């Protein structure tokens, strides 16, 4: 008998003998960050235990950053994946790109001063990841990118631009290698949105969700 899906568990992968795999975490249970929003069941499988998953996954996203990192439900994030958010940018409008102000803060520096530093670097906005997106090992996502539902990001791909739903992206810079399904099937999947179903309904229809039978998914609704 299968264990039920449980979004409240920090370590969702449990072996048959009851041993939890400590290197696999539900991110929204392992992370509390004011600029991150992560949906249920999205997991990160890193090969070594981490003390701070937020700092590893998005090392330049700070509590005072203007941008957000938003990740949907049921995403699969492999070892070494990183999100480089807008707060990593340097201002490029002057002669030097050196961030002098970062190293000249004092006790008089205010939160508004820090926010102004981020604005000078020409923020590119939020990084948005849809639902059921698979990130291969050591993929990197650059600032301000939107990745559509059902996309696959290949190992070590560098995503520099928006990714259409159900596309496979590979390479550096990342490019769409192929579409996973035809346009009609993609439209149907985006309408069905199985990831928003009640958990019990998802559990009862895992076979349909993991098959290519779009009619079986339609029949559930």
From TrEMBL:
Which organism does this record belong to? Acuticoccus sediminis
Coiled-coil zones: none
Q: Protein name, please?
A: Acetyltransferase
Q: Which InterPro entries match?
A: Hexapep (IPR001451), Trans_hexapeptide_repeat (IPR050179), Trimer_LpxA-like_sf (IPR011004)
What family does this chain come from, according to its entry? Belongs to the transferase hexapeptide repeat family.
Sorted alphabetically, which keywords does the UniProt record give? Transferase
User: Which first-to-last residue range defines the signal peptide?
Assistant: none
The record ties this protein, via SUPFAM superfamilies, to: Trimeric LpxA-like enzymes
For molecular function, the Gene Ontology terms on record are: transferase activity
